[in-house]
Amino acid sequence: MRCPRRCSFPEISADELIRSFTPTAADVAFVDPGKGRGPVDRLGMLVQLCTLPWLGFVPDDVGSAPPPAVARVAERRGLIASIWSGRPPRRAARR
Question: Nearest to residue 60, comparing CAs of 15, 4, 12?
């Protein structure tokens, strides 16, 4: 049986929010939009990259990321937090 604590995010303090959810230059370079990633992809990847050092893993339910954490990452990168659904966007099928 899987550990329930790994399924979702715990509460986050103000200090943890600032310390953990400020993307680094390396994080930003990794999700560079020039690599074909749209804003939803970039925000989702940044939330996951910021979560990893904070918790040591990324919870299974990425969509349960604390809204203040998502908003902070979005704000720091000039993205709109309301685009976050916690799920990868669906790609249109190629014909």
Answer: 4
What is the residue type of 28? Answer: V
With a cut of 70, which residues of the chain have pLDDT below it?
1-5, 86-95
Global pTM reads 0.80
Q: How far apart are the first and last CA of the chain?
A: 41
> What was the pLDDT predicted at 1?
45
DSSP string, 19-49: HHSS--HHHHHHT-GGGS--HHHHHHHHHHH
